[in-house]
Amino acid sequence: MQSAGQAPPNKGRKFPGEPLTDGEMRMILRACSQRAPTGIRNRALLTVMYRAGLRVSEALALRPADVDPAAGTVRVLAGKGRKARTVGIDDGALAVLQRWTDKRRELGLRGRTLFCTLEGAPLRDTYARDMLKRAGTKAGIVKRVHPHGLRHSYASALAREGVPLNVISKALGHSSSAITSRYLDHIAPADVIALGRSRTWPADE
Questions:
Q1: Coil, strand or helix at 66
Q2: Does residue 199 lie within any of the structural domains?
Q3: Distance separating alpha carbons of residues 46 and 26, to the nearest angstrom
């Protein structure tokens, strides 16, 4: 039994990454209202993290001008280590972002950040974490659902698609491909998975 003041047994423990599938992410997005302004905003926030691989801090620091629909890009100025980068984003994700941009303009919000409260103040990362956790629970997702998990999902999807390691590294804003290699191995060790997938089991015998 844990005594008063004692740290929980799993404090500081690092769990393996649990990437979400596209189907699971669609369920999470559907858990956000498509009518309420906050739901439209939250869907856009989760979409940009999932489809562009942004850290929660990077997404919350985006300004309206950082999204270029014509070029299909998102400019990240608040990257880790103060390193800026530009990433591409697909048309479907841009459409979700555009809906929030239109709603933001309709509401007359003049906040500096793209993802702001309905009073124009910046969103806190604690709000984003709690909101995503609630959406995951509402969607019935049994995996641990958290902002960095969306980044895990982005990275693992790129790896499965055969995107070169150095390109994944640039997209994630890592300082080296070695970091990306360790990152991907933590999420899903490809060699171990390939070994298990290559073996056969005579289930019908």
A1: helix
A2: no
A3: 11
With contact defined as beta carbons under 8 Å apart, do 158 and 171 qualify? yes
Domain membership of residue 198 (yes or no) is: no
Cβ–Cβ under 8 Å, residues 172 and 183: yes
d(CA 45, CA 61): 11
Residue 52 is part of which domain span? 22-193
94 and 51 Cβ atoms separated by less than 8 Å: no
- Residue 6 within a domain: no
Number of structural domains in the chain:
1
Please give the positions annotated as active site: 55, 80, 148, 151, 174, 183
Helix ranges restricted to H, 61-164: 91-106, 125-139, 147-160
Task: Answer yes or no: is 181 within a domain.
Answer: yes
Q: Is the pLDDT of residue 51 over 90?
A: yes
What is the phi/psi pair of residue 126, to 5°?
-65, -35
Alpha carbon distance 142, 122 (integer Å): 30
Q: How confident is the model over 79-137, as pLDDT tens digits?
A: 776 788 999 999 999 999 999 999 999 999 988 999 999 999 999 999 999 999 999 99
pTM for the full model? 0.82
State which H helix or E strand residue 79 sits in: none
Q: What local confidence, expressed as pLDDT, does residue 4 receive?
A: 47
